[in-house]
């Protein structure tokens, strides 16, 4: 687990004024990574770090030779169009780069003259998926989501007996992962309409969101060698927001016995910024496992994981319908929750994924699973918020929604905030539903 160090000091301020704005996502204590280029240009994508309203171009920083040693090696690795090489370097190199950036961006730092020309305004850039994602695994770590959705799909047997023993997951689809701002076509699929004797094929009628976090793997492990829970977090590069768009009518028909297949493989949207575990260190929280639940098996248990394996990342989902957009653009907030309610932690996901000797690789992605919290206002999917579509959401202006309609835009947001620590923001993860292809 990461100890607090000088980079977390809430009193630190940057010479870049926009980084010191109260309530901003990207103060000097955050320093998340993305790949970017100036929008509308043929420039190569390269790694950058968010600071205030700017992106610090790491390829330019590396070329300028501002840093030395591990920090310079990390900046050079981050100059590529994907961050896999940086991810593969491991925590000592990530940490060296973070410390060098923190020192060079501070008020009064000598590095100011060299770094200023490496800044690009965020409102003039476009982002790409930050890694070559070899494999994407979607977990199911919210017991509240598992219980709520289980009740809808399996009324007699909502929470299956393995849930409290196994961090359940399935292998997702990497090729259709896109970056915030994307539009995607409503999927077509096979469904069994209520009361029908035979399935039909057509546009999905129950298109949903899933509020998730994306966890990027840094250093991999050799095939055959399990990662212990104690080592697990050294293999994690950082965390972003993830929307696992889901076709519920397709899912209900196809998912037994092998799990979701085409109902979730058509599009998955990520936020561009990856917040490092080191930046999140002030927001660790105790794992909340009810005292009468079974204790995890030893490979999924450690004292540190129980004490501070959870993360208090606050999450929000906003829905902008075409009608709200026309009326002036104010989106409706349809969910507020926190990642701290998850039943299984990041470390447990890594330990479980590798216990059989499965090798993780730099740039692999985990989805946390839908992060519903304990109350109805904390549900992370429309199917839960609307009781399977039976109780539509009432939106401003008298509009209603059970599932997504064409033209709807969904934005996920995440941030950490508390007295005595700097705010750490995740930016946003936005996607828009386009009509099914005719
Ligand atoms: O309980 C089920 O049968 C289905 C669950 C999901 O759709 C959730 C899934 O993709 C994993 C998650 O996001 O928690
Ligand atoms: Ca999911
Ligand atoms: Mg998906």
UniProtKB/TrEMBL annotation:
The gene is fahA. It comes from Azohydromonas lata. This is fumarylacetoacetase. Transmembrane segments: none annotated. Its EC number is 3.7.1.2. Its cofactor is Ca(2+); Mg(2+). Residues 140-433 form the Fumarylacetoacetase-like C-terminal domain. Keywords: Calcium, Hydrolase, Magnesium, Metal-binding, Phenylalanine catabolism, Tyrosine catabolism. Pfam families: FAA_hydrolase (PF01557), FAA_hydrolase_N (PF09298).
């Amino acid at each position: 687990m990461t100890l607090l160090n000088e980079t977390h000091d809430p009193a630190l301020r940057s010479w870049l004024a926009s980084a010191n704005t109260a309530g901003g996502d990207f103060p000097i204590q955050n320093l998340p990574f993305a790949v970017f280029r100036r929008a509308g240009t043929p420039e190569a994508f390269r790694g950058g770090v968010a600071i205030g309203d700017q992106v610090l171009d790491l390829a330019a920083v590396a070329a300028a030779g501002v840093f030395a040693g591990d920090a310079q090696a990390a900046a050079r690795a981050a100059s590529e169009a994907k961050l896999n090489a940086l991810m593969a370097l491991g925590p000592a190199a990530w940490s060296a780069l973070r410390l060098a950036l923190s020192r060079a961006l501070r008020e009064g730092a000598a590095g100011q003259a060299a770094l200023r020309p490496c800044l690009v305004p965020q409102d003039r850039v476009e982002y790409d998926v930050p890694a070559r994602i070899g494999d994407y695994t979607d977990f199911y770590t919210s017991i509240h989501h598992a219980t709520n959705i289980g009740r809808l799909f399996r009324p007699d047997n909502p929470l299956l007996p393995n849930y409290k023993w196994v961090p359940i997951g399935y292998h997702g689809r990497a090729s259709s992962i896109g970056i915030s701002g994307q539009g995607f076509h409503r999927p077509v699929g096979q469904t069994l309409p209520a009361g029908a004797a035979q399935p039909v094929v057509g546009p999905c009628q129950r298109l949903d969101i899933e509020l998730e976090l994306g966890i990027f793997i840094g250093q991999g492990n050799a095939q055959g060698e399990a990662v212990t829970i104690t080592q697990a977090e050294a293999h994690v590069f950082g965390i972003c927001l993830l929307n696992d768009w889901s076709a519920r009518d397709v899912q209900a028909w196809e998912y037994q016995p092998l799990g979701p297949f085409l109902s979730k493989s058509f599009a998955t949207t990520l936020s561009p910024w990856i917040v490092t575990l080191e930046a999140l260190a002030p927001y660790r929280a105790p794992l909340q496992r009810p005292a009468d639940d079974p204790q995890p098996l030893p490979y999924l248990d450690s004292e540190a994981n129980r004490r501070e394996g959870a993360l208090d990342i606050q999450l929000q989902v906003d829905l902008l319908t075409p009608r709200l957009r026309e009326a002036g653009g104010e989106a409706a907030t349809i969910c507020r929750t926190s990642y701290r309610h998850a039943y299984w932690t990041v470390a447990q996901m890594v330990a479980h994924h590798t216990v059989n000797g499965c090798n993780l690789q730099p740039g692999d992605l985990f989805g946390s699973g839908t992060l519903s919290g304990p109350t109805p206002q904390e549900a992370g999917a429309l199917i839960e918020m609307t009781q399977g579509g039976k109780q539509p959401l009432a939106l401003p202006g008298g509009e209603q929604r059970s599932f997504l309609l064409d033209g709807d835009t969904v934005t996920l947001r995440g941030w950490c905030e508390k007295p005595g620590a700097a705010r750490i923001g995740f930016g946003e993860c936005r996607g828009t539903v386009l009509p099914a292809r005719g």
